[in-house]
Write a structure and sequence with these properties.
By secondary structure, the protein is an alpha/beta fold. It has one domain: 3-Layer(aba) Sandwich (Rossmann fold). Helix content is 45%, strand content 16%.
């Protein structure tokens, strides 16, 4: 039995993962900005579930959540940084305050969570950190530049963290989902207040009023949760796990296109060394 701390459990993948973890017999500190949304989960698993209020941009709440998990269960074995939200805007359209709030939640919130659990994990020489990213970090759609940037930042950080922690017995895995049938493209999606007409055919097509994807996404959150459980139970977990056929195919296409472009410009790339 392991103890999990999962952020962003009110809906979607976080909620599905919380239920799967608890159904598998693990302890779980399940968190959301409004802990009342988690009362049914806590009631269903009174001995192993701890529902806590947590806004990942609030360091005091982070410290309190980790301490309460430690007091109730003895510590955190698995941290899942799932809390976050989407934001759509052309790069030029985005409001500065919106951008900073997005990074504070999607990037720095995860950083602060990691820093809060690592002292105990290092002391035990064991643990697992799962950072929920997005295929957006790979494909960078028009209109999702800032969201994709937050996930690319999280992935870059995770890559270095993996190298730092693996010798200490702590695993780091990036989970890169495609489109799953959650509220991500509904309530959880925000966008710039004022669109610019010149971007109507690029970023504009991804604005909420023009997007017909919500409710038709191909991914099943419950199956994603089971896949994440399988990753943590693996004796050799991956540093990156792609979830969903759409994400897998998009990842492969981007990798192939990048390799083609790398080879196309090979001679010029290699021409820049000092000779002699």
């Amino acid at each position: 039995m392991a103890t999990w701390l999962i952020t962003g459990c009110s809906t979607g993948l976080g909620r599905a993962l919380a239920q799967a973890v608890l159904a598998s017999g693990h302890n779980a500190a399940v968190t959301a900005r409004n802990a009342a949304t988690l009362e049914d989960i806590a009631a269903a698993y009174p001995d192993t579930a701890l529902a806590l209020p947590l806004d990942v941009t609030d360091r005091d709440q982070i410290s309190a959540a980790v301490q309460q998990a430690r007091t109730r269960f003895g510590g955190v074995d698995v941290l899942v940084n799932n809390a976050g939200y989407g934001y759509r805007a052309a790069v030029e359209e985005a409001d500065d305050a919106d951008i900073r709030q997005l990074f504070d939640t999607n990037v720095f919130g995860a950083v602060d969570m990691i820093k809060a659990v690592l002292p105990d994990m290092r002391a035990k020489r064991s643990g697992s950190i799962l950072n929920i990213s997005s295929i957006g970090a790979r494909i960078s759609p028009a209109g999702s530049g800032y969201y994709s940037a937050t996930k690319a930042a999280l992935e870059g950080l995770s890559g270095s963290l993996h190298k730092e922690l693996q010798p200490l017995g702590i695993n780091v895995t990036v989970i890169e989902p495609g489109a799953f049938r959650t509220d991500f493209a509904g309530r959880s999606l925000t966008q710039s207040a004022t669109p610019i007409d010149d971007y109507a055919e690029t970023a504009g097509k991804r604005r909420k009023e023009n997007d017909t994807v919500h409710g038709t996404q191909p991914g099943d959150p419950a199956k994603a949760a089971e896949a994440i459980l399988a990753v943590t139970e693996s004796p050799n977990p991956p540093s990156l796990m792609v979830l969903g056929k759409d994400a897998f195919n998009a990842f492969a296409a981007v990798a192939e296109a990048e390799r083609t472009e790398l080879d196309t410009w090979r001679d010029l790339s290699l021409s820049t060394g000092i000779e002699g």
